[in-house]
Specification:
By secondary structure, the chain is α+β, with helices and mostly antiparallel strands. Helices cover 16% and strands 39% of the residues. The strands form two sheets. Strands 1, 2, 3, 4, 7, 8, 11 and 12 form an eight-stranded antiparallel beta sheet that branches. A four-stranded antiparallel beta sheet has the order 5-6-9-10, with no helix packed on it.
Length: 263
C-alpha cells in the first residue's frame, strides 16, 4: 500500500489504531508511542475538510479465485454457509498472498505547514519540542476495511456477505465491512470492520537543519525562550520562505515492530 501512496506514508498498525491530524508521536529508539496532540501543546493549526479518495484494493500475490454463492442457492464448495446465506469463497492457489480492501477513503490534512514550522521552531527554541517528536499532518480514513493474509499455500477463506453486498456481482472491495469469515484454511490474519485509519503522514524538524541550528546557536537550553530570549529572526524567516527546509516527512522507523508487521 505504501508503494501506491509513497514511502513517507505510514501504515497504522494495529488496524484498530486511530490516528488523526494533530496527533503527536514520539520515536523512542525506533519504537513509536503517543505523545499527546498539537492542541494540548497549544500549537495552532487548521485542518482541511475531508477529501474523498475513493477505494483501494490490493491483491498481493495475484491469482485469487473468487466464487460467489447467491442466497437460497447451494454449492458443494461452500461448507460453512447455510442455503439462505449469500457468500464468497476466495481460493489463493499455490501462492501465499493477501487481500487488502478499503472503502470510502477520505483524506484530511494541515494546509499551512509554514505556520506549523514557525510554531515548532518556537517550541524547540524553548526546549519544549525535540527531534524525536512527530506531528501528524495528513491522515486517510476509511469507512470500512477487509484484510486477509495467508500463512501457507493452497489457502482459502469462506465469507458470509452482508445484505448490502449479497445481490452480486461481488468484487473484492465489497468485502470491506460487508462480510464475515465463517471458515478458513491456512489463514494467518483476518480483520474486517468499520472506521479505520489505514494511512497517515508525519512531519518532524529536519535533522540536518537542527544540526545547523545547534552549531550556530548552541544546544537547546530548557526555558531559553521563556526567559526573554527570542527566536532568531533568521530561523523564522527560513520557515516562512521554505518550510521544507525546516520540516521533513520521514519514513517509518525500520526498528518499529509495527512497520515489520504491517502490509
Amino acid at each position: 500500500m505504501r508503494q501506491a501512496w509513497g514511502e513517507d506514508w505510514w501504515l497504522a498498525w494495529p488496524l484498530l489504531q486511530r490516528v488523526a491530524v494533530g496527533d503527536v508521536l514520539q520515536n523512542s529508539r525506533g519504537s513509536l508511542r503517543p505523545a499527546g496532540t498539537l492542541a494540548e501543546r497549544r500549537i495552532e493549526y487548521e485542518v482541511t475538510a475531508p477529501e474523498a479518495r475513493g477505494e483501494f484494493v490490493y491483491d498481493a500475490g495475484g491469482g485469487i479465485d473468487l466464487r460467489f454463492k447467491a442466497a437460497g442457492s447451494t454449492d458443494p464448495l461452500f461448507a460453512g454457509l447455510a442455503e439462505a446465506d449469500a457468500g464468497v469463497l476466495l481460493q489463493f492457489g499455490r501462492q501465499t498472498g493477501a487481500v487488502v480492501a478499503y472503502r470510502g477513503l477520505a483524506e484530511t490534512a494541515v494546509p499551512d505547514t509554514r505556520q506549523l514550522a514557525v510554531q515548532l521552531i518556537g517550541r524547540y527554541w524553548q526546549g519544549r519540542w525535540d527531534q524525536d517528536l512527530l506531528a501528524v499532518t495528513q491522515a486517510v480514513h476509511a469507512d470500512a476495511a477487509a484484510v486477509l493474509v495467508t500463512d501457507g499455500v493452497d489457502a482459502a477463506v469462506e465469507l458470509r456477505l452482508a445484505a448490502s453486498a449479497s445481490a452480486g456481482p461481488v468484487q473484492l472491495v465489497d468485502l470491506a465491512g460487508g462480510a464475515e469469515v465463517v471458515r478458513g484454511r491456512h489463514l494467518g490474519f483476518q480483520w474486517i470492520g468499520d472506521a479505520v485509519t489505514p494511512l497517515y503522514r508525519v512531519v518532524r524538524l529536519r535533522h540536518k537543519w537542527l544540526g545547523g541550528v545547534r552549531e550556530e546557536f548552541g544546544p537547546v537550553q530548557p526555558g531559553r525562550g521563556l526567559n526573554g530570549e527570542p527566536v532568531p529572526e533568521v530561523l523564522l524567516e527560513e520557515a516562512l520562505d521554505d518550510p521544507s527546509a525546516v520540516l521533513e516527512f520521514p519514513s517509518r522507523p525500520e526498528g518499529d515492530p509495527s512497520a515489520e508487521e504491517a502490509l
